Amino acid sequence: MLATRFTDVFGIEHPIVQGGMMWVGRAELAAAVSEAGGLGMVTALTQPTPADLVREIERTRALTEKPFGVNLTILPSISPPPYDEYRRAIIDSGVGIVETAGSSPEPHMAAFKEHGVRVIHKCTSVRHALKAQAVGVDAVSIDGFECAGHPGEDDVPGLVLVPAAADALSIPFIASGGFADGRGLAAALVLGADGINMGSRFLCSAEAPVAQAVKERIVQASELDTNLILRPLRNTVRVAKNAVSDEVVRILDAGGDFPAVQPLVAGARGRKVFEEGDLDAGIWTVGMVQGLIRDIPAAGEIVRRTVEQAEEVLSARLSLFTRRGMTCGTTQTPGNR
């Protein structure tokens, strides 16, 4: 078993977290990940109202008795969702784990702490992770540049970001962005993380509530088949490469502004991709890691084989270096020279 500080704090068996993906983090997927020993995530804002979120939490509980969390992404908006009401729905439902993302979780920390809710905050830089640690979160999830969705504006990949976070943080943290199998989990642990977050890998699972065409596209795609959109506006988002994201890049590179692309990046269009399987209906998020995804297994199988492969990789590498060390350290007699 790969027990870490993260598994100890959050009461789970394996150091694997399912990303809280918009339109994707529903009961069936979250429960399947948790049942396999990972940490499943229900996405709060996928539900149209706080009352709907309560019902989705109840559906998840009917499918698993193991711990699961709720993702609450907090972003500035002209017409923001009722975040306080979603927070209250989470607390009143007795959920013990929340993943916050977007803006600082500080305004919500007192309420969560009062009710014993453990908080993971998603960050894209060490400086943001340190701020989250300072306001009292229990763990952070730190996204490298490879990730789907918002990678931040620093363009620091996980190979640098993860050990930098390990050097700076005192609380547990998990690595996110670029993880699809046990090799990635093993690497993250060696670099100092306490586990991994996987979004795109679970997006391409049997339980993910998206059209089969989306999953098949991920299997067919390579690590080159993503676009970084909205970069000139310093609101970078990594999405699947398709006709719509190509057009967004073209317009902004030619000097266009946000109103020129706003109809193209509307969330309703991305939801249509997931629900109907029209891959060019809108933008949809997926990471570079799709180049490592080659099948559509059950979510529980993803958790199990990721852990098994990580254990095999770590054991094999340790054994390799142990044997080499013994060979190099062998004392030779003059007669053997």
From TrEMBL:
Q: Which UniProt keywords apply?
A: Flavoprotein, FMN, Monooxygenase, Oxidoreductase
**Would the keyword Nuclease turn up in this protein's UniProt record?**
no
Pfam families, A to Z: NMO (PF03060)
Q: What are the GO MF terms of this UniProt record?
A: monooxygenase activity
Q: Which InterPro entries match?
A: Aldolase_TIM, NMO
Q: What is this protein called?
A: Nitronate monooxygenase
Q: Which species does this protein come from?
A: Arthrobacter ginkgonis
